Amino acid sequence: xxxxxxxxxxxTRIFLDVRPRVHRHLQIWTARAGAIPxxxxxxxxxxxxxxxxxxxxxxxxxxxxxxxxxxxxxRFIVAYQTISDYLDNLCDRSTSQDPEDFRALxxxxxxxxxxGSVRTDWYRLHAERDDxxxxxxxxxxxxxxxxxxxxxxxxxxxxxxxEGLYGDLQVHKHVRLDERLPRLLSWFxxxxxxxxxLRWYEFAAATxxxxxxxxxxxxxxxxxxxxxxxxxxxxxxxxxxxxLHILLDYLVDQEEDRQGGDLNFCSYYSGEADMLDRMKWLxxxxxxxxxxxPEAPFHRxxxxxxxxxYLADRKVDRQVSVRRMVRRLLGTGxxxxxxxxxxxxxxxxFRER
Length: 353
Fold this sequence. Notes:
By secondary structure, the protein is mostly helical. 71% of the residues lie in helices and 0% in strands. The longest helix is centred in the C-terminal third of the chain and has 32 residues, at 320-351. The radius of gyration is 19 Å and the shape is globular. The two termini are 35 Å apart.
């Protein structure tokens, strides 16, 4: 099974393969979430799937790198992203602001990346505990998929590095408001030598994406995956593609986050012009970073797809400042970004009718 290298092949595979498989798995996890005994955990699990399914749709595109193991790659991506979205809801909507509680919950994510790892009590500091084995089933599904990855040993260190950064972010950004910024700044200082061109909030955004993990796993499903390729993939996706990914997410969520009092990394730019310049710069750095990868045309289309997917969000319609940025950002992405934008714009509005 070949990796799509042009727009027509990519969109065909997304329609005929990626979306149907992703939603088939999401239906299974929705039914499983509906059986969670604790009402609050059940509510958050169902809500995370209902409102964030597009995360799995987008991440699922990386499964096209897995060749004949496409089905297994989708299975892993949907399960792992469902863990991420579920835990994000638990931390965002929790009455707890205990960083140790958040850390304990997120122990499930590195364990999901290590087949045979010893399970800890993830809910040990959480008020609600009885999920009926929901999170354990998600973790087990990821582990089972990774056991089938021929080059798992080559990607395991990178997977755990990316997850470690992701887990740190989830702890630091969900603590009490007066602790949040000092923790994030101190954390950045310990990593800034590795990302000298990024501002602290751009680094934090880069750590909040799961795309590098999905790309590594899907790539390593292919036979004869060279060990040195793992480092190339990791460095291409982190920080550049991942930073662009999450900052676009925050861009369209600005008004919603202001109303909810939630952290939004875009609020730290000095103004609209500064934000636009940095977004364009991140796009170009991401493009440069994936150029050396074997499936470079595929990766470039994903970067352009990120622009289209996020800028077509209905939340953009209600934000004048974001609408002003859309045309300029799409212009930077060129015809492919405009195509993905129009496609996503029409798809979402048709689905929501």
